[in-house]
Known about the structure:
- The longest helix has 17 residues, at 50-66.
- The chain is elongated.
- Residues 134-138 have low confidence and may be disordered.
- By secondary structure, it is an alpha+beta fold.
- α2 links the parallel β2 and β3 (71-86).
- Helices cover 30% and strands 41% of the residues.
Amino acid sequence: MFKNLILIIVVAVITGCGTASTVVLDPVEQRSELKGVTISSGNHNVEVPQKIVTQLQTGIEKGLYEENDFIKSDALLLEYKFLQQDEGNQFVRWFFGGIGNAGEASLTVLVTYTDVGNQLAQTQVQGKIDSGFFWWFV
């Protein structure tokens, strides 16, 4: 019984509840298939810790180059720019367990897809974490 109680406490402490959403701001007008892409970090609207910038860059590269068939080339430029970043309050998030928006952390990124100087599409991605200590481990 005591081991189960310890396990429940540990899970409650490290668990985080998060959500993500993607909004297409400017959809592609004419579909084309490209196998090459370059990833670039744009001029961010807010200061973001380098650790987060590096994690995003690494995640995009892994998703495109390692897990899919994309190669590094100038066929398409994928430029991301941080619009908003709020680390929130980790203790408040955990203590109130996500009641309301207590301690909420959030991040918003604008992604622009460009082909030879012409903007093809634009998306906005937002992530939020509502409860738990999860943000400490990111």
